[in-house]
Every structure is written in structure tokens, then in C-alpha cells.
TrEMBL record:
<protein>
    <submittedName>
        <fullName>Histone H1</fullName>
    </submittedName>
</protein>
<dbReference type="InterPro" id="IPR010886">
    <property type="entry name" value="Hc1"/>
</dbReference>
<dbReference type="Pfam" id="PF07432">
    <property type="entry name" value="Hc1"/>
</dbReference>
<dbReference type="GO" id="GO:0003677">
    <property type="term" value="F:DNA binding"/>
</dbReference>
<dbReference type="GO" id="GO:0030527">
    <property type="term" value="F:structural constituent of chromatin"/>
</dbReference>
<comment type="similarity">
    <text>Belongs to the histone H1/H5 family. HCT subfamily.</text>
</comment>
<comment type="function">
    <text>Might have a role analogous to that of eukaryotic histone proteins.</text>
</comment>
């Protein structure tokens, strides 16, 4: 679970940097990178949700 959270954090940071660059500077390439990062985040967030629900149901900590 920690590895998954690290992956989500890394991609989120990259997404925010590129999305801000597109918004502030009009950088089209950064917009493309931000859209790609958002597509990569989706399955990771779904996996997090699944693991989180399983942990809540079992009452155990996930590492």
C-alpha cells in the first residue's frame, strides 16, 4: 500500500506541475503530459480504493 501511495504522489506531483505550466504559460506539451498523467492515475486510484475498502472491512492495517 505504501508503494502504491508513493506512485500516486509522484504522478500527482507531475500532473500538477504540468497542468500549472499549461495554465500559466500556455505550454501545450505540458498539457499533453498532464493529460497522460491523469490517465495513469486512474487505475492507481481505483486500486487504492479497492485496497482501502478491503482494509476497512478486515479491520487490519495495510502496509
Amino acid at each position: 500500500m505504501k508503494d502504491l501511495l508513493n506512485q500516486i504522489e509522484t504522478l500527482t506531483t507531475s500532473f500538477m506541475k504540468d497542468a500549472s505550466s499549461q495554465l500559466d504559460k500556455g505550454n501545450k506539451a505540458a498539457g499533453l503530459r498532464a493529460r497522460r498523467a491523469s490517465l495513469e492515475l486512474e487505475p492507481l486510484l481505483k486500486r487504492f480504493r479497492k485496497l482501502s475498502l478491503a482494509a476497512a472491512a478486515s479491520g487490519k492495517r495495510q502496509d
